[in-house]
Design brief:
Blueprint: E1 12-15, E2 20-30, E3 36-43, E4 59-71, E5 74-78
Antiparallel strand pairs: 1-5, 2-4, 2-5, 3-4
Length: 79
């Protein structure tokens, strides 16, 4: 993954479990092949279906408040 220093303004966290995580994130990058979401909540955003898989480096940009993975790993950038 290639990230610029502007991506680290609010910090980031790796999410690699199926627990529900709440907070505020502006970008989510898929870090493991075949990642799925049980819940992905954000404003002005339509969540993907729980059976939809995403490849490594796929990016979601928005204002997210809940991340709950079905499987896989993501890097989430905090606001």
């Amino acid at each position: 993954m290639n990230f610029g220093k502007e991506d680290y303004v609010g910090g980031s966290e790796i999410i690699a479990d199926t627990s529900e995580h709440t907070g505020r994130w502006w970008k989510i990058v898929v870090a493991e092949a075949d990642t799925t979401f049980a819940t992905l909540t954000g404003s002005n955003f339509t969540a993907p279906g729980s059976s939809e898989t995403f490849p490594v480096n796929f990016e979601f940009i928005g204002n997210f408040t809940t991340i709950d993975l079905g499987a896989g790993k993501v890097l989430a950038y905090k606001v």
